[in-house]
Design a protein that fits this description.
By secondary structure, the protein is mostly beta strands. It has no helices and 11 strands. The strands form 2 sheets. Strands 2, 4, 5, 6, 9, 10 and 11 form a 7-stranded mixed beta sheet that branches. A 4-stranded antiparallel beta sheet has the order 1-3-8-7, with no helix packed on it. A hairpin with a 6-residue loop joins β5 and β6 (about 60).
């Protein structure tokens, strides 16, 4: 059974930091693309950051580059998103995703990921 469970969301003031975690199981973690997306009500799910299926390359949305860092721990089958210098516009539900079939050119596309967590809310106050 595939499981992805996010944690670490919460309320933080602008300029603050949060570290999101996503514990996973039930699929080949080491051979899957891993990503974080975010979504606000009435909006489409937007790409935030990803790790490639092979090679360990990282990718970021322009809006978070330099502030967010995505990483993984193969021993724990976990994905992390370190978020620094948070801004009110970062407020959203954050979802982790895994894509066993995702290729590098599709890393930013939500539809290309097979497995998703339920999300964790991040709220940034001004």
């Amino acid at each position: 059974q595939v499981q992805l469970t996010e944690s670490g969301g919460g309320l933080v003031q602008a300029g603050g930091s949060l570290r999101l975690s996503c514990a996973t199981s039930g699929f080949n973690f080491r051979s899957s693309a891993l990503a974080w997306f975010r979504q606000v009500p009435g909006k489409e799910r937007d790409f935030v950051a990803a790790l490639s299926r092979t090679g360990g390359y990282t990718y970021y949305a322009d809006s978070v580059k330099g502030r967010f860092t995505v990483s993984k721990d193969n021993a724990k089958n976990s994905i992390y998103l370190q978020m620094d210098n948070l801004k009110p516009e970062d407020t959203a539900g954050y979802f982790c995703a895994a894509g066993p079939r995702t290729i590098t050119s599709s890393l930013r596309t939500a539809a290309q990921y097979d497995y998703w967590g339920q999300g964790t809310q991040v709220t940034v106050s001004s």
